[in-house]
Amino acid sequence: MSDVVNNAAINPALNSPARQFSLERTRNIGIAAHIDAGKTTLTERILFYTGLIHKIGDVDDGNTVTDWMEQERERGITITSAAVTCFWTQKPEESLYKAFETLPHRINIIDTPGHVDFTAEVERSMRVLDGAVAVFCGVAGVQPQSETVWRQATKYKVPRIAFVNKMDRTGANFLNALNDMRKKLNAYAWPIMLPIGAEDYYDGVIDLVNQKAIRWGTGEATNEGLKYDITEIPAELKDSADQARAELIEAVSNKDDRIAELVLDEKPISVIELKAAIRRLTCRIELIPVLCGSAMRKKGVQVLIDAIIDYLPSPIDIPCATGHVPGEEALIEVPPNDNSKFCSLAFKLWTDTFAGKLVFFRVYSGALKKGDNIYNPRTRRRERVSRLLVIQGSERKDVEAVYSGDIAALVGLRNITTGDTLCDESFDVMLEPPTFPEPVISMAIEPKTKADRDKMSEGLQRLAEEDPTFKMYTNEETGQLIIAGMGELHLEIIRDRLKREFKVEADAGAPQIAYRETITKAADGEGKFIRQSGGRGQYGHACVKVEPNEKGKGVEVLNKIVGGTIPREYIPAVENGILEAIRSGVYAGFQVIDIKVSIVDGSFHEVDSNELAFRMAGIFALKDAFKEAGPILLEPIMKVEVTTPDEYQGDILGDINRRRGVIQGVDAKLGQTAVAAHVPLAEMFGYATAIRSLSKGRASYSMEPLNFAQVPNSVLNTVLDAAKKKPAART
């Protein structure tokens, strides 16, 4: 990775003369956090202070830029990740890049959802970002979904800075939030700013890097001037500020050789040297700089934007993307360079009422202009680019070209799925696509009128193309259409979109749990399919061995045939039969997971054997082995956190116990109790209503998928009976 100071000089070899903002002056960042931590509010304030908007919207009023869907504005939550671009020029004395001190930076921001039902939006956004701002509530600290988005950022190696929000709220405690990050996230998090006061008395921060105090001004904020005053650190806070700065320098020196050398030689460390070192470590994900503020009160937002420029990487400050040639394993680097061959990743599909099908993509190398041809290595097809758009929330702006590091959208492409690589045909490479969790809940759905059947099927198909965590299929036993997703809210939004966007009214059954089947011991099985009805018959014979696989490893089907007892051309048919039985389930009609199947023996008939016969033999063999392998049923377990006033703690704990929940911890904070528990998803239906009743509307909760666990014997028969009566619920 290049050194931060050297990166300050604009490198003409990397940048096209036609682009307005160089790679060095480009930031691709995401705002991510637990629900209600203030992501959208913070994004709205950033857009205000960068001059993109001139009136601040509010989540409660339903007029923010990034929450542009009707459902988002009505419910006050973010459902889909929204991209927006803004520009920021630092004051010369605060700029790390002296070459850029009078030049604006371009910041591409993706505001992501906080609700676990829409985790796919966070997942695909993290895949294409260069950096992220992790927002934490100053009162609640690290919450369950905070941990999820943190893991997602770590998975895709995204550098990040932390912003402790809501410092003006009653109970806000910066140090508690900081310790939460270190304890729960195992983060090497160090404050680069300390709050001056808290709650109603929160009126500034101490900038530990620049050794200054920043006091918020009074009066109405405008985006034409920075409404804060930079002063000397008050005398009563000087000792604590000096100690905190010394701790910050020590933390940096533990990871950075340059600062360590200066510390050992007892030489002074300049602001530029310290900033550069913090930036190096942040880009290498070895340090998390922590800031604080109150987005709602417009406090600390401009300081955060400066930190985004100073510490989060440009596309050239992180290791370049890598891919592989289709069919080969060797990795190929995709350098961030306008003059290289074009390569990008399609990370999101969206159907726009006016523009049609939009394909959001991140450019990793090269440039793309209207009229160019792009190539999809997965489909081996070329398509012509007729229209390029830059997205500003709900607005679309046509552009002539996009360059390395840009995030934009294409219109009119066909045969595209989320995760496809779009590149120059002479640069045949496939980038690693994002991965998504499997659905945990399903329900049967049907249109209210027969005339709407085709429209509903088309609408669901288009929604499934957009959302990788939403699945639809037809139950072969009943002919019912089944939809599956990440939670009740997820499926509720799908039905609402069907009604609004596709004008289809639909009835839905009660939500059903996506149970899973697995085995507890090894067993052998044999399957024969023999038909003889005059003339040529059918003959297939396969023997298999099944074994439990490691938890989370999924399904493995291995060919261990020796001596040609099953001809090579029929092995795929046996494998397909095994996989078909695994998908449809054996024990109770639910999908099988974490199982290893070995095809070990069989026989064939020179005349009567065919692919159909061996596919059926594979199905029968798996079912035969499964019966003797100790089959069990698994149910999804949710990680639940409830925040309640102390007086309702007992009622909440008792209710969780009645729901087969296992309490993991109880943490009391200033009149509020946070209860962490693991609860089966089957027991969480209608919990929103129950918790309101128990706490008179004063408690709140969040939950996210944790794992699968064995269904206890006390409820097993109930589940099996329900599965027999309602086959449409299976998934």
Characteristic terms for this protein:
Alpha-Beta Plaits; Elongation Factor Tu (Ef-tu), domain 3; globular; 38 strands; 16 helices; 731 residues; single chain; 31% strand; Rossmann fold; alpha+beta
Question: What does this entry look like structurally?
Answer:
This protein has 731 residues and is α+β, with helices and mostly antiparallel strands. It has five domains: 26-311, P-loop containing nucleotide triphosphate hydrolases (Rossmann fold, 3-Layer(aba) Sandwich), CATH 3.40.50; 321-431, Translation factors (Elongation Factor Tu (Ef-tu), domain 3, Beta Barrel), CATH 2.40.30; 441-515, Elongation Factor G (Translational Gtpase), domain 3 (Alpha-Beta Plaits, 2-Layer Sandwich), CATH 3.30.70.870; 521-629, Ribosomal Protein S5, domain 2 (2-Layer Sandwich); 637-710, 2-Layer Sandwich (Alpha-Beta Plaits), CATH 3.30.70. 26% of the residues lie in helices and 31% in strands. The protein contains 16 helices and 38 strands. The strands form nine sheets. The protein has a seven-stranded mixed sheet with strand order 2-3-1-4-5-11-6, sandwiched between helices. The chain has a six-stranded antiparallel sheet with strand order 20-19-22-15-14-23. Strands 25, 26, 27, 28 and 29 form a five-stranded antiparallel sheet that branches. Helix 6 packs across helix 7 (257-264) and helix 12 packs across helix 13 (611-627). The two termini are 46 Å apart.
Low-confidence stretches: 1-10, 94-100, 221-226, 727-731
Rg over CA atoms, rounded to whole Å, is: 28 Å
In the CATH hierarchy, the third-tier topology of the largest domain is known as Rossmann fold
Q: Major β-sheet, in short?
A: 7 strands, mixed
Tell me the name of the CATH class of the largest domain. Alpha Beta
Strand content: 25-35%
How far from one another are the termini?
46 Å
Quickly give the CATH architecture of the largest domain. 3-Layer(aba) Sandwich
Which structural class do you get from the secondary structure elements? Answer: alpha+beta
Shape: globular
The overall number of domains is 5
The CATH superfamily of the largest domain turns out to be P-loop containing nucleotide triphosphate hydrolases
What's the arrangement of strands in the largest beta sheet? 2-3-1-4-5-11-6
Number of helices: 16
Helix content: 25-40%
Number of strands: 38
Give average pLDDT, whole number.
Answer: 84
